[in-house]
């Protein structure tokens, strides 16, 4: 899996996820086969049909059952995966929490699409942002290449003995999931070598060593188990950076929990997730040509939140705009905004921070939109005062 | 549990119980407000109470029924209901 042996292939974001799943060759994939499911599972079920994977594929009757079957399979000792999107994720909600609290390293690609209602099928982050406190690790991806690479890396992060937590790997609905891109695909054998064999701790099917999963856990132990989950989340940054470094060695492609773009001397910073990161990079380039020192921060790993890194990156800058592709209805702006403001609390040299909620229900975000945000950042820095804390970008 | 409960650093993760038969060390006897008392003079050792007890809290000896194991008896009173001699009564638990 060196950069040289990787093969460029035209893939959509959804195809890239199916391709990663094919190479991971999970023991069990349980998934709901029709909408709101995406082409991820369609593509993977073709691999099952063609016999190119050894996976036991369970086409369940709902997303609630999909996650339930993954929980059962993972507890049994299998490497289990599923994929979902939007209302499908909402329907599996109860079991999403159970997967995390039972400490099962399930990896789930998620195609970000708006939650109903009103009924909508297009991109926003309301689905995965709603699940941000479920105890899963969350990784956001700019493009199909990142989707492919991060799903493979996620398997190792999830299964690490200091972690043992499930991982969601996000991509933007339609914008990434349905757009054809050039993706470098590693050799099958190299992917299998990288992910290795899953060695489950205390699998249910080890009948010589019987164990109980999911017992009633009341006031006398539940709290301790939650405390363990917090500790596992704390271990994630160290483990993730180590796995990303190993992945870089194997593939030639480098990832971090936080990606930065033209930040060295940046005064005005855009913070965004997923495909908007790509658009913002382009706009930053043209603003730089006009002499505006703009930069970008992309907290790829949103859970656990890289608060220290962001505080370090943003302190000393003049102004920052947090772009949120979902509304948290907290009265305090979007979820990313709330996290960033909290991360900056201890900073002695905070930038002026504004929130832009944008792109809900697939509303387009253009270069002009992001350009106007950077212009406002510059004006805000000059005036030294935030005019409007929470803004809505592109709404009529 | 009778011993000091384990903290988060010692417990197996994820709510798993990694040894079988652990219900034995989880003593549920302190739930009860009434305790069964068997009148051994009237008892005919028919073992109905032993058979019906949902917590296996009626223990057997060679000669028949022994006492109720109060570490596990939750005081449900099923033994009183099924006793054909009506020789078990529930007495208020004193604490």
Would you mind describing this structure in some detail?
The complex is a heterodimer of chains A (396) and B (95). The model of chain A has no long low-confidence stretch (mean pLDDT 96). In chain A, strand 7, helix 7 (144-159) and strand 8 form a beta-alpha-beta unit. Chain A has 13 helices and 16 strands. Chain A has helices at 13-24, 39-49, 63-76, 86-91, 93-101, 126-130, 144-159, 188-195, 222-251, 276-289, 307-314, 335-343, 367-383; strands spanning 7-11, 28-31, 56-59, 80-81, 84-85, 107-112, 137-140, 167-172, 181-185, 259-261, 268-271, 294-298, 301-303, 319-324, 352-358, 390-393. The termini of chain A are far apart. Chain A has 2 domains: 7-199 and 214-251, Thiamin diphosphate (ThDP)-binding fold, Pyr/PP domains (Rossmann fold), CATH 3.40.50.970; 259-393, Rossmann fold. In chain A, the strands form 4 sheets. A 6-stranded mixed sheet of chain A has the order 10-12-11-14-15-16, with helices on both faces. Helices cover 11% and strands 20% of the residues of chain B. Chain B has a two-stranded antiparallel sheet with strand order 1-4. A two-stranded antiparallel sheet of chain B has the order 2-3. Chain B is elongated, with a radius of gyration of 16 Å. In chain B, 19% of the residues are buried. The interface between A and B is medium-sized, with 23 and 15 residues.
């Amino acid at each position: 899996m060196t950069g040289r042996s990787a093969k460029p292939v035209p893939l959509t974001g959804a195809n890239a996820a199916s391709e990663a799943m094919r190479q991971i060759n999970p023991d069990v994939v349980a998934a709901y086969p029709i909408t709101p499911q995406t082409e991820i599972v369609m593509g993977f079920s073709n691999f099952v049909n063609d016999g190119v994977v050894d996976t036991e594929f369970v086409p369940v009757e709902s997303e609630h059952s999909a996650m339930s079957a993954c929980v059962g399979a993972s507890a049994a000792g299998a490497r289990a995966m599923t994929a979902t999107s939007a209302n499908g994720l909402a329907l599996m909600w109860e079991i999403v929490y159970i997967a995390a609290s039972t400490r099962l390293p399930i990896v789930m690609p998620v195609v970000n699409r708006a939650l109903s209602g009103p009924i909508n099928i297009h991109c926003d982050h309301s689905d995965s942002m709603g699940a941000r406190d479920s105890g899963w690790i969350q990784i956001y991806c700019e493009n199909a290449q990142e989707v492919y690479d991060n799903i493979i890396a996620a398997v190792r992060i999830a299964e690490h003995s200091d972690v043992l937590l499930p991982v969601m790997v996000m991509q933007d609905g339609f914008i990434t999931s349905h757009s054809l891109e050039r993706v470098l695909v590693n050799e099958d054998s190299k992917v299998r070598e990288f992910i290795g064999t899953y060695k489950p701790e205390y699998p249910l099917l080890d009948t010589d060593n019987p164990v109980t999963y999911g017992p009633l856990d009341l006031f006398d132990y539940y709290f301790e188990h939650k405390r363990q989950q917090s500790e596992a989340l704390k271990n994630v940054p160290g483990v993730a950076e180590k796995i990303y470094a190993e992945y870089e060695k194997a593939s030639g492609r480098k990832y971090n929990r936080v990606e930065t773009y033209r930040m060295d001397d940046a005064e005005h910073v855009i913070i965004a997730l997923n495909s908007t990161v790509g658009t913002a990079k382009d706009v930053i380039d043209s603003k730089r040509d006009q002499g505006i020192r703009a930069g970008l921060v992309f907290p790829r790993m949103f859970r656990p939140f890289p608060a220290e890194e962001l505080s370090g990156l943003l302190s000393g800058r003049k102004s920052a705009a947090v772009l949120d592709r979902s509304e948290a209805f907290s009265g305090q702006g979007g979820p990313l905004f709330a996290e960033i403001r909290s991360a900056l609390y201890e900073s002695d040299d905070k930038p002026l921070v504004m929130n832009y909620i944008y792109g809900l229900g697939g509303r387009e975000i253009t270069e002009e939109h992001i350009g106007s945000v950077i212009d406002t950042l510059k004006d805000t820095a000059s005036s030294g005062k935030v005019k409007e804390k929470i803004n809505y970008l592109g709404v009529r | 549990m009778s011993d000091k409960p384990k903290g988060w650093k010692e417990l197996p993760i994820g709510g798993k119980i990694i040894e079988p038969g652990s219900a034995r060390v989880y003593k549920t006897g302190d739930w009860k407000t009434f305790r069964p008392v068997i009148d051994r003079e009237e008892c005919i050792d028919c073992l109905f109470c032993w058979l019906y007890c949902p917590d296996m809290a009626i223990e057997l000896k060679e000669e028949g029924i022994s006492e109720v194991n109060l570490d596990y008896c939750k005081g449900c009173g099923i033994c009183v209901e099924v006793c054909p001699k009506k020789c078990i009564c529930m007495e208020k638990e004193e604490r």
